[in-house]
Amino acid sequence: MMPPPPRSSTTLYSQQQHEAQDDFVVEEEATEANMTTTTKTRAKTPLSEIVEAFEELAKSLNSRRIRNSDKGAGGELRLDAFSKTCSLVSVLFSCLGLAFRFAESEYVAKVRDLVEASKEYNTLQTILDLDVANGTVRTSGSHSRNLRRVRQGLDLIRALFEQFLSTTDYSLREAATTAYSQVCAPYHTWAVRTAVYAGMYTLPTRDQLLLNLNETGEYILIIVNLSIG
Fold this sequence. Notes:
This protein is mainly α. Helix content is about 70%, strand content about 0%. It has helices at about 10-40, 45-70, 80-85, 90-95, 100-115, 125-135, 145-165, 170-185, 190-200, 205-210, 220-225. Helix 2 packs antiparallel against helix 3, helix 3 packs antiparallel against helix 5 (about 100-115) and helix 7 (about 145-165) runs antiparallel to helix 8. It is globular and about 45 Å long. The model is unreliable at about 25-40 and about 70-75 (pLDDT under 50).
């Protein structure tokens, strides 16, 4: 049997070109697939943005504490960063509908006050010290009082998601009712409490809430453990 004739250098070069091109196409397709996967992984949701913002806030605070440890001073939370991060939480109130409209409007107004205050004062401690010195900590409209209301709003969201995660059989209405009773009800009048409890029947279902947030639930557990608690 005669051996096959040797291939010319031109034929070998052409084959190598085709193989290199095929390898390039495969590599390019793999790169595009990885980019698509990465894009999907990095897709933002309201909860993921809140989680990332509070985590950055905690890192910044811890870093300031470490830098100031040798000076005998604790890290002070910057008012501008805090108020900007808190502003992201308002979307959670809006997704809860009519029942939490009262909380949303108050929360947004108080956060807006802190945003304006951050243009003049650097840290949360600054506004607290100022109101203590002026005797206006409990005065309506003071920055300290507005800060307490913002914290109460954050506590309400934290408590709601804690209840939300306690069991899969727990409806959003039950979770919200329990959270409101724990955090806000003691400070509200009978008329306000009655209106809020009646509005609980208009809350979305668990699935509807996750859909409104464009969320699969991945970040709900994380948000409970954030510094807002």
